[in-house]
Design a protein that fits this description.
138 residues; mainly alpha; two-stranded parallel sheet; two-stranded parallel ribbon; 4 strands
Length: 138
Amino acid sequence: MLDFDNTMLPYTSKIPTRELLTWLDGMKRGGIELCVVSNSKKAKAAGFCKAHNIACITHSKKPGRRGIRRCLARFGAEPQEAALAGDQIFTDVLGANRAGSLSILVKPIHLHNIWLKLRHAAEQPFIFLARKRRITKP
């Protein structure tokens, strides 16, 4: 599962980078099924996913579990068989954890306004604490 805005594309762009397209192609060739799980109510995520043949769930209401559960049901997967990559702790990471899936925090692509910068600053103490308690598997 992937968040969309600021994880795959900046909020301010509809044009994917060559790196993103190459990564998506590699995932598909590797047999890894992808699904965008986005809180967005705009057509941007759904349009991108349709154009690139990726499953998409919008209005997911993360950190709630509804959108994540819909994605898991679509693929017949159990929560522990899936991961969600996203740029926000309070929506993406918390939503994945609440649903019982692995959460992958990625750096936001572009913090283009004061609200995104403030949100990112508010997440920093949690990122610091998570790094300190990270458990590595042998």
